[in-house]
Amino acid sequence: MPPLMRIDAIVLRQVAMPLRFRFRTSFGETTVKRFLLVEVRSEGLSGWGECVAEDTPYYSPETVGTAREILTRFLSPLVLGRDLAGPPEFDRLALRVRGNRMAKGALETALRDLFARAAGTSLSRDLGGTRSEVEVGVSLGLQAGPKETVEVVARHVEQGYRRIKLKIEPGADVDRVGPVREAFPDVKLTVDANAAYTLADAEVLAALDPFGLDYVEQPLHHEDLAAHAALARRLRTPICLDESIRSAADAEAAIALGACRVINVKIGRVGGHGEALAIHRVAQAAGVPLWCGGMLESGVGRAHNVAIASLPGFTKPGDTSSSSRYFEEDIVEPRPEAAGGLMPVPSGPGIGVRVVPEALARVTEATEELRA
Ligand code: SMG
Ligand code: MG
């Protein structure tokens, strides 16, 4: 049995990091990445987790504000002052809190980092990772038009990314994918609609079939698995689900219904590494390939993503591209950087990156220290 760890304090920081580009999707635009960073302190060690809830409730119902409320009032008290056996004990305690998976994931991932650091093992190894580097792709936001889209794709193909994902929305789909496919006949290409279509658009989506996309991500409403199953019967292109998959139970249901053939795993969306591992088991049993999604994370969340992406079921390139693509300055060292479309998996204890206090201070908007 690994030793119990007494949770002495939890520090919540609200951080804002300016993005180097405008990231536009079918639901909105991000220019500054604002998020909560969770530091769990125990016996002189710190574990770090990043909450992927955004300022707005457009990607998920959670926001920075709701996550702060849930973390402060309901989740932190479950572990503060407690001798914790490990992250799964937190998962059990937190079952009582419904939903709010991004808030849970932030604390759960911080605890995963803490316990792995204490044991002196890398988080990747702790989770069952088998790779020393992971394949990465890049997610490109909606551009002004087809010409600009081809240009931005060209720049990222040059940088060696192993898959290009284009954001689409009604009115900006076939006209974007067509020219990109023509300019890059062999590149691995996908699209992500962030739930912007309905079944009435099935013909438009079927018109993407000739472009040989690896998959179309979350075309329809996030709460409608049956509609995705119906759409799947009308498309040759596989459907990948993102927003619709909040848990291993969702993954089982989606696979059983024929709603998806690929799953995008985001640690925060599903409530932490424990649930991500459960989805990994479901997907492995069903032969469904996984890949690790992104939420414009700082180096902390990015390192967590790389750790889970090192598991054997993550067979497609993820959205965890280089930190320097997003930010002038990151809050960790070394910065997670890909070369030739491959991102190294840190082998040091925990997430394997160090949070740099001075860099963190420069982007911190508010700090709250919670104690038992
Ligand atoms: O981290 O590079 C990234 C962003 C990847 O496209 C991305 N994320 O639906 O998959 C998705 C979106 C959700 C976040 S949009 C701010
Ligand atoms: Mg997505």
Q: Could you please describe the fold and organization of this structure?
A:
The chain is α/β, with parallel strands linked by helices and 372 residues long. The chain has two domains: 5-120 and 355-371, Enolase-like, N-terminal domain (Enolase-like, domain 1); 125-354, TIM Barrel (Alpha-Beta Barrel), CATH 3.20.20. The protein contains 14 helices and 17 strands. It has helices at residues 64-79, 87-94, 101-119, 123-127, 146-158, 174-183, 202-206, 225-232, 248-257, 267-270, 273-286, 299-309, 323-326, 357-363; strands at residues 5-6, 9-25, 28-42, 45-50, 83-84, 133-135, 138-140, 164-167, 189-192, 216-217, 239-241, 262-265, 290-292, 332-333, 342-344, 354-355, 364-371. The strands form five sheets. The protein has a seven-stranded parallel sheet with strand order 7-8-9-10-11-12-13. Helix 7 (202-206) links the parallel strand 9 (189-192) and strand 10. Helix 1 packs across helix 3, helix 2 packs antiparallel against helix 3 (101-119) and helix 5 (146-158) crosses helix 6. The chain is globular, with a radius of gyration of 20 Å. The model has no long low-confidence stretch (mean pLDDT 97). The structure holds N-succinyl methionine and magnesium ion. N-succinyl methionine (SMG) is lined by residues 23, 25, 30, 59, 139, 192, 194, 242, 293-296, 319, 321.
